[in-house]
UniProtKB/TrEMBL annotation:
It catalyses: beta-D-fructose 6-phosphate + ATP = beta-D-fructose 1,6-bisphosphate + ADP + H(+). This is ATP-dependent 6-phosphofructokinase. Catalyzes the phosphorylation of D-fructose 6-phosphate to fructose 1,6-bisphosphate by ATP, the first committing step of glycolysis. Mg(2+) binds at residue 103. Belongs to the phosphofructokinase type A (PFKA) family. ATP-dependent PFK group I subfamily. Prokaryotic clade 'B1' sub-subfamily. ADP binds at residues 21-25, 154, 185-187, 211, 213-215. It comes from Gehongia tenuis. One of its GO terms (cellular component) is 6-phosphofructokinase complex.
Amino acid sequence: MKKIAVLTSGGDAPGMNAAIRAVVRIADYHGMEVYGVSRGYNGLINGQIEKMTPRSVADIIQRGGTILKTARCEEFKTEEGRAKAVEQIQKYGIEGVIVCGGDGSFRGAQLLSRLGIPTVGLPGTIDNDLAYTEYTLGFDTAVNTAVSAINNIRDTMTSHERVSVVEVMGRRCGDIALYAGIAGGAEVIMVPEIPVSIDYICQRLLAGKERGKLSSIIVLAEGAGHGEEISELVEKGTGLETRPVVLGHVQRGGTPTCRDRILASRMSAHAVKLLSKGVGNRLVGVKGEKIFDMDIDEALAQKRTFSKELYDLAIELAN
Ligand SMILES: Nc1ncnc2c1ncn2[C@@H]1O[C@H](COP(=O)(O)OP(=O)(O)O)[C@@H](O)[C@H]1O
Ligand SMILES: O=P(O)(O)OC[C@H]1O[C@](O)(COP(=O)(O)O)[C@@H](O)[C@@H]1O
Ligand SMILES: [Mg+2]
């Protein structure tokens, strides 16, 4: 394969730029041409496709977001939309596509492969909600951003002897809350995978106060409740002064960590090599520091598991 395309799709994630850079440079090194598609699948449908060169990806490894822009594209979910995309791909003579995105983007990649366009997926989402891979690009950065916010919040909560509820992203996956909670020394972590009652949380906070804790931090994944609401219920249930903080999109931007940059570079190199051999319908992942690829259908059929071991560790650490 000599001519490939790259696009970013769904919610952006720090490390997407490092991935684009690596795709372009590795492909060029091996004598392949790369076309950048703007705005996710929209760009494929509308022909927003431009040739990229090693110089067009200069100075982006350290930048969050994605220079190709991203989008959620409803038209690509229709047969007509996908047919238009295939037409554009053929018009440009593109032989394979690399899609950096989350589970939704991979459904699109799967359908594109079925239409005869070899497509390879790179896991780009802060949520870490893909079952087949241990880590996704952007997760490490988002966790670090959440932890530095928790550090700041902790200072003022300690001074005022308050409880704080820090709401982080993660609609169906509690990994950001779990990792940021452990690294930030949270007293309570609330995740969608393990529902708990407000009574249980209040009881744990009051028990902590009994043991001499002057302030407490609850890290709440958005899928487990709303910061404002949980904060009010906790204040009512404990009598402790409580404040909510919603981190929101702050955790989706910012310079990617070294870990995300290196992971993006390694995964992208792997994706380019697959396409260079004409292999498509694969997702690239990492397990135990090893980069691997897996059939898309098989990877998407896997069920996510939540680390109960880390969750239980967090409870013991909050003693
Ligand atoms: N079932 C599907 N069929 C075709 N395309 C899809 C499908 N699901 C998602 N997509 C495409 O992928 C895009 C991104 O999906 P989304 O779920 O929003 O984000 P993410 O990829 O981050 O999970 C969608 O806007 C759409 O263009
Ligand atoms: O970009 P929006 O529409 O604000 O979406 C917010 C959502 O996007 C995410 O950041 C990433 O989700 P996806 O990977 O599904 O795109 C979620 O954590 C969050 O709930
Ligand atoms: Mg998703």
